Amino acid sequence: MVPGMTQCDIFTALAAPVLPPGGVIRAASDCPEAIAPQVLDLIEKAGHGALLTPRQQLLLRRGLHVLAAARSTETWHPLLRLLRRNRDELDRCLGLAVTETLPSVLLGTFDGDADSLLAAIADRQIDGYARWALLGTLARLTFDGTISRKIAVATLESFESEAWADAGDAAWEGWQDAIRLLGLVELVDRVRATWSDGRNPQRDVERQVWEDELAAACAKPANAQRFIVERLQPLADAATVLESLEGSRTPEQCSTEKLEFDELSEAEIDWLHECLRHTHAAINIEQLDGFCTALAVSPVAVSPRDALAEIWGDEVPTFDNAEQADFTIDLIKRHRGSIARRLEAHRPLAAIMADAELPANKWADGFMRGVSMRMEVWDRRLPHDEQLTSFLGHILMLAVSAEVAESDGITKDERAKMVENLSLAVLGLFVYWRERPLRKPSVPRATRRGPYKIGRNAPCHCGSGKKFKRCCGYTELTLH
Fold first, then answer.
1. Which of 259, 284, 342, 386 is the most exposed place for a label (fewest CB within 10 A)?
2. Phi-psi bin for 399: left (phi > 0), alpha (psi -120 to 50), beta?
């Protein structure tokens, strides 16, 4: 134990944004009971599909390495369940460990249940890189005598003959590595066959290196050095491994990464995108961005409670735990606030446009959802103000489907120009309501009317006699 630190202090340090000193990590390995219950709980939750917060992911990743260094065999089966999640989930929880340190973690937590290891190797649903690590684990355990050579050979034969991996899957690399490391000359023809038929494509130089290293393994079958070079040994020092995975950043370096308007980082946006899907929200991340922008330009305030009700619609958010719920709501509040601060500084909009096929379509839909929450207020001006109608109409026209836009004769070039001018339209709305506030502000109850629908084939409000969609609904914008 580090002098002056309690078990609670060690746990808190492992969950901090900055990697704690090596002494703290080694102290955790010396007394794994300080973190084991919480870390195992997180591994179990992630293995059953829960979306962990970044703090929880960090604690899982660090704690897993600490438990592996402490030879915590109770971690083995929860870890195998986690490896059965998809690659995106593995990347969120394990990060670079999937390709860098997973074999040593598996070897450090192996509980002697060879059948569970063989079942995981045979499981086509497990990510190819994870199975690469599992095959390396099999090779090392066979070398050590923990698993019999006969069982290893039968498993590797079945991998090829029963097509346990698709052509080009990374698991083939682990398969041929296991054969090379164990010097299994009886399987050489099978390896060469996978090279020839495209299941396991290898360049000529890679094939020659494999042949040479196989010969070296056969020449010195008892030499463990080749496994050490491949990092196929139980994890010994979690501190060194974690430092190599995370680097060494000081708190000061972390603080300088804060964005100008306290915007969400790319990683936070990605997490929030996944969380909206995971909790069955009524909108996606692009619609959320448009929605929050509408609330930022709104002539009257929309309460956080009303906004959250709109985001999840009629569904009750299915948060996995209180920390996930609090983190999600905090991200949404931060995002909404950062948009408002950007607009107050008259800076260009940094819209999230996830749909490359029809840019800004979902964004505009989300914006109009936000407008609809205070439609009674907008309606007090829209029929009588050409500028306001023009700005809002510009966004409305982006919300229509590709088919509707085509039927209205809006070309791709015209639409691209509208997307290019989106920032101008949003800033125009923001400035308009700040310079022309309602004389008697009212805060009506939130309504669920869906996107605001201006009659696009009706005469334009400005009195030109033209249809809205060819007048204020689509104009070159000028911000005064």
1. 259
2. alpha
- pLDDT digits over 291-308, tens only? 999 999 999 999 989 999
From the CB of residue 20, how many other CB atoms can be counted at a distance below 10 Å?
21
Cβ-proximal residues to 448 (8 Å cutoff; 6+ apart), any chain? 310, 372
Contact call for residues 355 and 286 (beta carbons, < 8 A): yes
Q: How many CB atoms lie within 10 A of CB 93?
A: 24
Contact 296, 339 (CB under 8 A): yes
Whether 93 and 129 have beta carbons less than 8 Å apart is answered as no
Cα separation, 113 vs 423, in Å, equals 59
| Beta carbons of 402 and 358 less than 8 angstroms apart | yes
Q: Name the CA dihedral angle for 207, 211, 212, 215, rounded to a multiple of 10 degrees.
A: 170
> Which whole number is the average pLDDT over 133-160?
98
- The percent helix, strand, coil of the chain (3-state, each to 5) is 60, 0, 35
State the amino acid at position 151 in one-letter form: I
Provide the pLDDT for residue 34: 85
Q: In this predicted structure, what is the pLDDT of residue 456?
A: 45
> What is the spatial distance between Cα 290 and Cα 451, in angstroms, rounded to a whole number?
12
For residue range 86-109, list pLDDT tens digits in order: 999 999 999 999 999 999 999 999
CB 100 within 8 A of CB 65: no
Per DSSP, 39 falls in state H
Instruction: Please give the model's pTM, rounded to 2 decimal places.
Output: 0.84
Alpha-carbon dihedral 423, 424, 425, 428, rounded to 10 degrees: 120
Which amino acid appears at position 202 of this protein?
A: Q
